[in-house]
């Protein structure tokens, strides 16, 4: 959360582009006969036809929702077309959706700094492009405005007098007496409309967008009018937007912090925060969070568009709900091997295509103890330095799981019994690779790059079973070792880290993730994915 207060006269032009029912659109592009039909993408399993992960707008009109199972959707809308997510290694394969998202990103990045926020959403900083347009070909002097731009929804623009909406938008864009910020937004309207049409032309995908002076407002706006539309938030309309916005619709306020604001402070809308001095909010929630709350109540956000086209991490996960819970250590190891194989493939592809390496492997799990149904104890997340090569990642992930399991069972005074978890069930597993950095430019080969590292950073270069590069990565060597786990590898260390099977922030459950990402979009209304697709891999609900 940002601490510094940006100037309220922020004149950036930021867009949040959100793909419409993206998983459905990807499947409809593969099967054009599905276009215009009620369609849902389903994560198939044997229980009631699997869980819906995306629902087309045509299906929503019949009452189909993402919280439904496939059989329920058929009952509500018998003609709904259910398309299964591809499966690989016994779990959902999102590579097709991920690659389709990359197509969109490559188009959007042509006009400004681009941050890929998830599979199906992107932030754009269009300030430079807008300033250039304003200097070279200002909208105020344009004789014709593209039809798609004229369809824009401009918050605060009065269209209730029966006047032509598109004509009102044209007049707003053409205003000569507008301040500099609004003139830049007018440029943003034209640029985003053009980009959205280019995405449609080149990929056949529609998208919606929000255009504002910061990321927070742009994201709120992008979900207000869907599908295939764009919404603009002029500075003069910020207060009106936030005054009545439910506090838990704001990003990062859907969970415990939002509940505290409601219960302890009587805050039900973002506008309610305006009554509290910054000092009061800091006293209650700390300096950083207090200042952040004070800022967002006024529509102020200094968060920058990061200029990231590639993901910050890679992950693979699967859930095992109800009777499918894993109850033996061999069963857990089997699925960890599958997840690690997928993770290794993605890491190798990233290394080969983007010359990037990951440094940290993290394991997350969710578990229950049958005799402690009311327990709130979470399975501890564990991490260690990452070694490249499928077998090494599998070995290390399993060791991380064993360390977490011992700690988890020890909380209740229990112990493992052979290959069984003594009444435990694992309902979710995921592995992720993070701290991904580029290999320095000018390096003539990957092998020479790693050979140039100190022995305390990389102990050796070993061959891998599936890595098509000149060399692979190995664990750092040094004086520290995995706590609680016996590895066949030498003791390990990593620069500037004190412990490397370490606790990480516990992974959020799906409802908490939904809360943290809730916005005005219809994304918040149709539930959340409950099956194999990992939270690490998914964007928000569509």
Which features does this protein show?
alpha+beta, 18 strands, disordered N terminus, six-stranded mixed β-sheet, MutS, DNA mismatch repair protein, domain I, 3 domains, Alpha-Beta Plaits, single chain, five-stranded antiparallel β-sheet, 542 residues, globular, Dna Ligase, domain 1, disordered C terminus
Q: Overview of this structure, please?
A:
The relative contact order is 0.12. Strands 7-8-1-10-11-9 form a six-stranded mixed beta sheet. Strands 12-16-14-15-18 form a five-stranded antiparallel beta sheet, covered by helices on one side. It has a three-stranded mixed beta sheet with strand order 3-2-4. Helix 14 crosses helix 15 (390-410). By secondary structure, it is an alpha+beta fold. The protein starts with 13 loop residues before the first strand and ends in a 26-residue tail after the last helix. The protein is globular and about 70 Å long. The protein has helices at residues 22-30, 57-60, 70-76, 95-108, 127-136, 147-150, 165-174, 180-203, 215-222, 238-243, 256-265, 278-285, 287-296, 329-354, 390-410, 446-451, 510-516; strands at 14-19, 39-43, 51-55, 81-84, 87-88, 91-92, 113-118, 121-125, 153-154, 207-212, 230-232, 314-319, 356-357, 360-369, 382-385, 424-434, 437-438, 502-503. It folds into three domains: 22-86, 3-Layer(aba) Sandwich (MutS, DNA mismatch repair protein, domain I), CATH 3.40.1170; 97-298, Alpha-Beta Plaits; 314-410 and 423-438, Dna Ligase, domain 1, CATH 3.30.1490.100. It is built from 17 helices and 18 strands. 34% of the residues lie in helices and 15% in strands.
């Amino acid at each position: 959360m940002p601490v510094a207060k940006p100037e309220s006269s922020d004149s950036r032009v930021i867009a949040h582009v959100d793909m419409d029912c993206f998983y459905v659109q990807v499947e409809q592009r593969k099967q054009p006969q599905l276009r215009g039909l009620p369609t849902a993408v389903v994560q198939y399993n044997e229980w009631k036809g699997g869980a819906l992960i995306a629902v087309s707008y045509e299906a929503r009109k019949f009452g189909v929702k993402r919280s439904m199972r496939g059989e329920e959707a058929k009952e509500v809308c018998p003609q709904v077309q259910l398309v299964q997510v591809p499966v690989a290694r016994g779990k959902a394969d999102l590579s097709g959706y991920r690659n389709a998202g990359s197509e969109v990103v490559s188009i959007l990045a042509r006009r400004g700094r681009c941050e890929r926020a998830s599979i199906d959403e992107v932030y754009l900083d269009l300030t430079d492009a807008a300033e250039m347009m304003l200097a070279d070909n200002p909208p105020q002097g344009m004789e014709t405005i593209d039809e798609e731009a004229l369809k824009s929804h401009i918050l605060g623009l009065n269209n209730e007098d029966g006047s032509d909406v598109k004509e009102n938008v044209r007049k707003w864009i053409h205003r000569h007496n507008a301040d500099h910020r609004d003139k830049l937004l007018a440029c943003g309207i034209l640029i985003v409309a053009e980009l959205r049409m280019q995405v449609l032309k080149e990929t056949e995908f529609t998208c919606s967008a929000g255009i504002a002076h910061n990321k927070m407002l742009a994201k709120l706006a992008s979900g207000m009018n869907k599908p295939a539309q764009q919404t603009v938030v002029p500075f003069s309309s910020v207060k009106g937007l936030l005054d009545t916005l439910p506090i838990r619709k704001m990003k990062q306020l859907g969970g415990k912090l939002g509940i505290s604001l409601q219960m302890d402070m009587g805050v039900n809308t973002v506008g309610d925060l305006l009554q509290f001095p910054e000092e009061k909010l800091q006293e209650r929630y700390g300096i950083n969070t207090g200042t952040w709350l004070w800022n967002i109540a006024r529509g102020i956000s200094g968060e920058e568009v990061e200029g990231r086209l590639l993901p910050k991490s890679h992950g693979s996960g699967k859930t095992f709900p109800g009777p499918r819970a894993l109850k033996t250590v061999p069963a857990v190891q089997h699925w960890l091997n599958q997840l690690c194989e997928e993770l290794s493939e993605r890491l190798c592809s990233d290394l080969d295509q983007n010359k990037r390496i990951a440094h940290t492997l993290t394991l997350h799990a969710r578990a229950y103890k049958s005799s402690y149904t009311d327990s709130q104890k979470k399975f501890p997340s564990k991490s260690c330095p990452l070694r490249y090569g499928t077998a090494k990642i599998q070995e290390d992930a399993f060791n991380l799981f064993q360390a977490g399991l011992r700690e988890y069972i020890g909380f209740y005074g229990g112990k493992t019994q052979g290959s069984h978890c003594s009444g435990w069930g694992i309902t979710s597993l995921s592995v992720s690779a993070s701290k991904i950095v580029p290999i320095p430019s000018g390096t003539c080969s990957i092998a020479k790059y790693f050979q140039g590292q100190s022995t305390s950073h990389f102990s050796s270069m070993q061959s891998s079973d599936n890595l098509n590069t000149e060399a692979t990565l190995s664990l750092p060597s040094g004086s520290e070792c995995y706590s609680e786990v016996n590895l066949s590898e030498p003791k390990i260390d990593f620069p500037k880290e004190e412990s490397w099977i370490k606790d990480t922030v516990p992974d959020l459950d799906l409802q908490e993730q939904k809360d943290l990402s809730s916005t005005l979009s219809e994304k918040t209304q149709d539930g959340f994915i409950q099956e194999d697709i990992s939270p690490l891999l998914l964007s928000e609900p569509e």
